[in-house]
Design a protein that fits this description.
mainly beta; 10 strands
Amino acid sequence: QVQLVESGGGLVQAGGSLRLSCAASGFPFSSYAMGWYRQAPGKEREVVAGINSGGSTTYYAGSVKGRFTISRDNAKNTVYLQMDSLKPEDTAVYYCRYGNSGYWGQGTQVTVSS
């Protein structure tokens, strides 16, 4: 049974930082690329960052490049998203996903106040 459990969200002031975690189980974690996505109210879900199975290659959406860092620990079956210099427009529910699967966790709410 696939499980993706996101955590680490919260309320932070603009300019602050948060570190999100996604604990995965039920599939061979180290064999899959992982991605972080977000969905703001009234908007479609969008990709934020991605990382390949070995952790050597990363991708970032233009809106977060230089501020967010994705990483993974294959020994812990966990992927992280370090978010720095947060902006109010980063407010959204953040989700993780493996490969192109249809599995999503419950998400974690990030709220950035101005």
